[in-house]
Design a protein that fits this description.
eight-stranded parallel barrel, six-stranded antiparallel beta sheet, alpha/beta, Jelly Rolls, binds beta-D-glucopyranuronic acid, TIM Barrel
Length: 601
């Protein structure tokens, strides 16, 4: 799906701003709130999570639908154009009404969707746009909600007391706050009626040149012309036809931390679209991960889209700041834990040369996590109902992000239940692995991020292109005993070394209260976080197969309340407002001295 852009052929209208808002009181649909102006609405900012915008426990802990509404007028001179209403992301389920009519629905909170409105929009008066948004999560949603109540952070775990009716609330089977709302920009864009629907660009390197294979999907017939520009706006190649190849002589590669972007200007009849792309190669060979033919070492983080007041809503200032902080530290990469990030962030990473592992919203696909939900073990994959939706998010994520040079690998899921019944997990994930490869025109590596456990039983991880593992030796396991942590980690890496594939630590981290210090470090102090990181990387450095370290987490982030978290997860190397903890300085020293390529040789 193309990112909406303003250009000489296309109009773009941003619907960000203050909308009317009302949480469903149970009557929203029966009273057809979407047919007329909301009565006594609240004001709410779009895009952003709604949860933290008001001083209200009802809004913060809301369960179910909320209604967003605004008037939309469209200039008359757009008559005769194709007009599209597009949502960057609405979390988790959206029903969109225009002038009282349901015009589209969308499941999944982290990917864009759009609907044509040129035949239904009124040009002479304003139109009532209502978006009903559901935040409920269960065994069929990604991320997964816990249908047995409780949550993985220990909320509601004690036996219930007869006669007491607890309030209905979401029970996330994952460790981040279930923020909801219209999280990413809402836009109207136009195209001519015959238009460019999609563009696919597959760059190959051929000596000093690039051989770029492309295809352009159009609606309607006509000639397709491509002109390729470099960063100085010089024409470097031309092509015509819906499919073909063009050569860029003496190509400048897109390199980690040294990005170079070309632009393909595509014209088709009255329509025009400019698609940026980078030329780089990605390949897994033996136990190494190659970018542009050289073994790459991932230095960076697992992150979240999370910030004060905005919740999970897009914050482009913060995105710029985060990438600046990453560069300050010598980091070169991050994983979009635990859902696809905004298109704006992906565009930024393309420009900044930040390497991205792009993850689906499949987190919590693990009904045996910490034994929550049931005292006996269940077959997660026979119990959950995510199968079809999981296929859809993989397809949609790859379709959205396929042209981004920053994306070097797809992650099918985070910490899924791959060890309880190894065959069941393998049967679920092997087809998804194949699907991801099939969907990606650039055929990038595919992985799944593995949870701590009896890794020798796991059949799914070894079936992926890269072994990505989240490990908490020295925190959840051997917390406070870093010598034991190092021994256990060494034993595990001896195992993975034999598997013969690259290994990336996609999470390792320790909760740390900013400002808490001790000369003899204990867990939760800033010194312990540094010692924890040192102990882990000391072992990573001994193994050639370890090709990356992504610390959990870039910054402190909000979670549901419960006995495991004090105002959220504190494993950040930065606080939630982006102040560095001691660990940031330690990692900065380390990473600035580690090369991005050829580190282990
Ligand atoms: C892992 C999860 C991550 C958590 C982290 C933690 O992948 O979402 O936040 O551990 O416990 O289990 O901090």
């Amino acid at each position: 799906m193309l990112y909406p852009k303003l250009n000489s052929a296309r109009m773009l209208i941003d619907l960000s701003g203050i909308w009317d808002f009302k949480a469903d009181d149970g009557n929203g649909f029966s009273d057809k709130w979407y047919e007329r102006k909301l009565e006594n609405p609240l004001t709410i900012a779009v895009p952003a999570s709604y949860n933290d915008q008001k001083e209200s426990i009802d809004l913060r802990d809301h369960y179910g639908y909320v209604f967003y509404q605004r008037e939309v007028a469209v200039p008359k001179y757009l008559k005769g154009q194709r007009i599209v209403l597009r949502f960057g992301a609405v979390t988790h389920y959206a029903k969109v009404y225009l002038n009282g009519e349901l015009i589209c629905e969308h499941k999944g909170g982290f990917l864009p969707f759009e609907v044509e409105i040129q035949d239904i929009i009124k040009f002479d008066e304003s139109n009532l746009l209502t978006v009903a948004v559901d935040n409920r999560i269960d065994y069929s949603s990604l991320p997964v909600g816990n249908e047995n109540g409780g949550n993985i952070l220990g909320g509601g775990l004690l036996p219930s007391v007869p006669g007491v009716t607890p309030k209905k609330q979401n029970a996330p089977n994952f460790d981040f706050f279930n923020y909801a709302g219209i999280h990413r920009p809402v836009k109207i864009y136009t195209t001519p009626l015959k238009y460019i629907k999609d563009v696919t660009i597959v760059p190959n390197v051929d000596g000093n040149d690039a051989k770029v294979v492309y295809s352009v999907e159009t609606v309607g017939d006509g000639d397709v012309l491509l002109t390729i520009y470099d960063e100085n706006n010089e024409i470097v190649a031309k092509a015509n036809g819906k499919e073909g190849t063009f050569i860029i002589k003496n190509v400048k590669l897109w390199q980690p931390l040294n990005a170079y972007l070309y632009t393909a200007k595509i014209t088709f009849g009255e329509d025009m679209y400019e698609q940026t792309f980078g030329v780089r190669t990605v390949e897994v060979k033996g136990n190494q991960f190659y970018i542009n033919g050289k073994p790459f070492y991932f230095k960076g983080f697992g992150k979240h889209e999370d910030s004060n007041v905005h919740g999970r809503g897009i914050d482009e200032v913060l995105n710029v700041k985060d990438i600046s902080l990453m560069k300050w530290m010598g980091a070169n990469s991050f994983r979009t834990s635990h859902y696809p990030y905004s298109e704006e962030m992906m565009n930024l990473c393309d420009r900044e040369g930040i390497v991205v592992i792009d993850e689906t919203p499949a987190v919590g696909v693990n009904l045996n996590f910490g034994g929550v939900g049931s005292s006996k073990q269940v077959d997660t994959f026979k119990t959950i109902r995510t199968h079809e939706h999981h296929r859809k998010v993989i397809k949609d994520m790859i379709e959205r992000d396929k042209n981004h040079p920053c994306v070097v690998m797809w992650s099918l899921a985070n910490e899924s239940d791959t060890m309880t019944i190894p065959d069941s997990a393998y049967e679920y994930y092997k087809p998804l692995y194949e699907l991801a490869h099939k969907c990606d025109p650039q055929n990038r590596p595919v992985t799944i991020v593995g949870v701590q456990g009896d890794y020798t039983k796991d059949k799914t991880l070894p079936a992926m292109d890269v072994i990505c593992i989240n490990r908490y030796y020295g925190w959840y396991i051997y917390g406070g005993d870093l010598d034991a942590a190092k021994q256990a980690l060494t034993l595990e890496l001896e195992y993975w070394q034999k598997v013969g594939k690259p290994v990336i630590f996609t999470e390792f981290g320790a909760d740390t209260i900013a400002g808490l210090h001790l000369a003899t470090p204990n867990m939760f102090t800033e010194e312990y976080q540094v010692d924890f990181l040192k102990a882990n990387v000391e072992v990573f450095d001994k193994f050639e197969c370890v090709v990356g370290e992504q610390v959990w987490n870039f910054a402190d982030f909000q979670t549901i309340q419960g006995i495991m978290r004090v105002d959220g997860n504190k494993k950040g190397v930065f606080t939630r407002d982006r102040r560095p903890k001691l660990a940031a300085h330690y990692l900065r020293n380390r990473w600035l001295s580690l090369p991005d390529f050829d580190y282990k040789f």
